[in-house]
Fold this protein.
Amino acid sequence: MNAPLKQHLIDPEICIRCNTCEESCPIDAITHDDNNYVVNADICNYCMDCISPCPTGAIDNWRVVAAPYSLEEQLSWSDLPAQQELESASDGGAVEALEDDIDALLEEARKGLGGKPVAPPSASKPSVNLYNRGKPAMATVTGNFRLTHADADSDVRHMILDFGDQPFPVLEGQSIGVVPPGTDAEGKPHQVRLYSIASSRDGEKPNANNLALTVKREIGGVCSNYLCDLSRGAKVQVTGPFGATFLLPNDPAANICMICTGTGSAPFRGFTERRRRAMPNAPGRLTLFFGARRPEELPYFGPLQKVPEKLLGKHFCYSRVPGEARVYVQDRIRSEAAEVIALLNEEQTHIYICGLKGMESGVEEAFSDVCRAASMDWSELKASMRASGRYHVETY
Ligand code: FAD
């Protein structure tokens, strides 16, 4: 009999096929076809670089096997096989040792060694993967209204999903999966899409078993159009919750610096509401840099005007107001350098970036510039902030 080995596998039932794992694997051990994302056991060296970036945790699956599952086998799966029975007089100890080995490696990855993202130390422990495609939660739409102005080009909606008597515990910063009904052009069920939770852990209104989403209608998009067109009373299949690092610190002294565009504002609505409800007099400051083309395109523009500056410092940046210079979030970070440096100099400051893929690089360049002007080293600071659970990016 072959010596058992630990095999890294991806759960096809939870995976949303976002390609993040394939992009983050430094040795091309991850590949995919139209059906699944899979890990090549001949190449994978357990570096764990793919674990934290995965938005659902589908990547975090392991089996001790006598012989590795081939790529062909993995590509054909619709769910993960159970752990094989390997216990025997000859290999029992080896199996246990390998399982301990995997646990140790994962623990290391979760601690963020090497600068990988980790949760803020004072964050509450999140529940993840309570529901999947095979066993989704059934939510009822209890609200769906447009957030952007009637004249705006973009249709962004505030949606409320109620879970009735099904337990669906969430934390601010987590996401849920939505299963769009129907099939794609090849007759396969549509993939699950993720949406950030835009409400506080205790519901859209305190003590309700519901949550809010901020959904942008994408032209030709399957799930966003499905959601945006739903009426009150409609039922939605939901998976998750997902996300174990992009979380709000419970420490009232934590300064939270939030940088977003568009629907990237969703988790920050949840963060702000949590602070307002749970610790309105917290000494830590909340600061928001929020970019949009015009005020009319900015989700939550009206409600945000009413949030007092004492609770939330706001920097709105507009890139398409006729007759005005284009201002992006990175420009505003530069022009508010004194405030930004003061925040970066405090050990209890956490940075969160959320929005479209690609915004991170512009924001980072701005941080790098303001730090250079203040004789600080941004790359060093960022690495230490990441390692201590104080630098978080979620872009899509
Ligand atoms: P898809 O059908 O997946 O299409 C993707 C793109 O291709 C669309 O832009 C669409 O315009 C284009 N396209 C597809 N078919 C056609 C066609 N036939 N012709 C022309 N163009 C086409 N989104 C939010 O709105 N709010 C959130 O809070 C949010 N949070 C997220 C959090 C995470 C962690 C992640 C990973 C993603 C998040 N997203 C969020 C994005 C969301 O998951 C979806 O990707 C988004 O809603 C688009 O999905 P879709 O099914 O509508 O588009």
